[in-house]
Amino acid sequence: MLISQSTAPSYEQLRPLKPLTTETFPVYKELTSSLVETETHPDPTVAHVLGTCAGYAYSDAETVAMIMARMGLNDNRCLKVSQFVDPMFISSTAFVVQSQDGRSLILCYRGTEPVNLVNWLTDVDVNPEKVPIAFPDAPGGFEVHGGFYRNVRATRYEVVTALKRALEGKSVLGNGEAMAGPLEALYITGHSLGGAMAALMAIMLMTEPAYESIAAKVKAVYTFGQPMIGTPALAQACDAHPFLGKNVLRYLYGNDVVPQLPPAASGSFAHFGPEYQYQRRGDDGHWNHNDQPTEQLSNILELVKVPLSFLARQVRILRNVPFHASVYDHLPHHYIAALTPPGVRSEFGD
Prior knowledge:
Elements: E1 2-7, H1 31-37, H2 44-56, H3 61-71, E2 77-85, E3 90-98, E4 104-109, H4 117-124, E5 128-135, E6 138-145, H5 146-167, E7 185-191, H6 193-207, H7 212-215, E8 218-224, H8 232-240, H9 244-247, E9 248-253, E10 275-281, E11 284-290, H10 302-312, H11 332-339
Parallel strand pairs: 4-7, 7-8, 8-9, 9-10
Antiparallel strand pairs: 1-2, 2-3, 3-4, 5-6, 10-11
C-alpha cells in the first residue's frame, strides 16, 4: 500500500512561469462555499471542478493539489492512496482532497491509463462477483464486475479512515492537524475505471450501516466515461434508491466507447442514474440529458474499430468519419474542455 500526501501552497507561494493576477486564479473564488451549499445536481460549477480533478488524477498528489488550488481549493490537503498487485489485476489509486477549512472534500479515483496493460486487463476482467448489498427494499446479493469491485476494495480501508478523520475535524493526512471545522460536504468522482470505482464506493457508503455517518455527508457523485459496473438487477435497485438513483450522475462525451462496456458478449450489464451526453456540432456542442441510459455494445466487431477511431483523428480527411465507439472521445481532456462553462477560465488560467 502506497500512501503519499501533499499540502497545496497558497498562491502567494506559487512560482509560475509568468506572473499571475488575482483575476487568473482561483477559477472559482468561493469554491468551498459552493461545494457545501449546492443542493441541486447536476451543477455546472461542481461538474467542471470534479471533471478537472478526475482528469488530473492520472498524475501525482502534488499535481492534484496544485490543480485543485487553482480551481479554488487553496491550501488544500491532498492524500494519495494506492495499491498495485499485477497478478491480481489490482491497480487502485484514490485521491482525498480536503479544503483548507475542512468543510468540503473530494474523493477522486484514478481511471484507466491506456498505456498500462494491467489497468486495461482490469476493465476486461469481467467475471461477475456476487456481493451482498443491503438495499432497504431489495436485500440480497447482486453481481458486480469482479475487477472493478476488487480495485475499490483494495484502497477502501485507508480511504474510509481518511474520511473519518475529516468527520472529526482533522486533516486527512493523518498528522493530527486540526481543521477549522468538520466535514460538511463530500463529493465522489472519477474518469473511466475511476468512475466505476466512484460509483461502487457510493453504493457501499449508502448501503452499509457502518458508513452511515460518512454517507450523510455525500452530496453527489459525478463520473466521466464510466463503464457499467453490474447487472440490470443491480442497476434497477440503484435507480430505486433515493440517493443513488438521482445523485450518481454520469457524463458521456460524444461516442466514448467505455460507457458501452462491458460488451453484450461478456454478459448482461446496465447503467443506473442520470446520464448526460455531450453532442458536438462543428466546433461547438452541448450536454443533453438522455432519457434512456447507454446500452452495451452489441456488435463485438465494433471493438475492432476502436483503435481506428483514434488513428482517424490524426488524418485530416478522416477526422469527420463517424465511429459508433470511439476511444478518442474517451480521453479526459475532452471532458474537461466540454465541462468548462462559457466565460470561465480553464485550469491553465486562459
